What does this fold into?
Amino acid sequence: MRRKILTCLALSAAFLCACGKVPSGNSVQQGEIEHSVSDSSNNAQVENRGADKNNWWNVLPRKDWAHYQRIPQQQDWFEVYKVLDGVYAIYEPGQFEEVISFLILGNERALLFDTGLGIGDIRAVVATLTDLDVVVLNSHTHYDHIGGNHQFSQILGRDTTFTRLHEAGSSHDDVAEFVGPGWVWKEFPPDFDPSTYRSKPFQIDERISDRNKIDLGGRILEVLETPGHTPDSICLIDRDNHLLFSGDTFYLAPLYTHLEGSDFEQYAHSAARLAALVVDIEYVLTAHNVPIVTSSYLLELREAFDTIKSGRGEYALADGHREYDFGDFSIIVANESSE
It folds into this structure.
């Protein structure tokens, strides 16, 4: 999820060099974006997502992506980057969420952490990146993270009421606005019909819980339950490589504690849990906007929640909710008068 036009993080020079550069001509050009949305001069249709959402596409392309090796794809809907050894970011910048799914490779199998919006064919993308068997695990079950689940036969997931509800899919009416005016600047794939868009049902084969370990062969991912954004939110920690895949628990944009199913107190507890792991984490791989930030942001996240809880935080009202600005990210809290 998202959104503010935020200052992107500049990682260390040594790290950026290790990731490589995008070949010239591969990035979407600003002029192309402006032309594509010339008939949508503002974004009043996007509600409940914080301030500064008008003309959200003007920040694209985000400079951070230029530090990573872009992998050419036949589908224009996706941009794919090799962001670390054995880790690919599958990015969908054409829709407001700017969602990022991560393909994580082991020696024996691969794990796809989220499957995006379901607008393009993410299974076909994955097939260009690996011949390994692929298992899917969602950071949580909001529509923009489960869209391609139905394309895969091996799916892990939480055992929560929230998860089971979304496992059954959605109606078109539930998600129609997310492919409507103001939400999308890019042309849809030719075989996609926004008038029938829905989250398709999928089946979870194995239920996972806190501290479960997933062995990919030479790479072990540990599940951390981090409720707050949703009841079924998780992160994955790769201790050997000092990485945290944060899903929607943290990214550089407004963080949502005000949506249906969200819980501010649980989110604060999850933030504190992640902050305590900073000594073991170097980089955080986030599910929206930019792929990698440094782990120091986890300390800032804990401090931000502490500030709000103490009553010291300043906020502005956005779509009827309180938005607390902490620089590179913000936290949206349900306004007491609207609860």
Summary: The first helix runs from residue 13 to 19. Residues 268 and 309 are 9 Å apart (CA to CA).
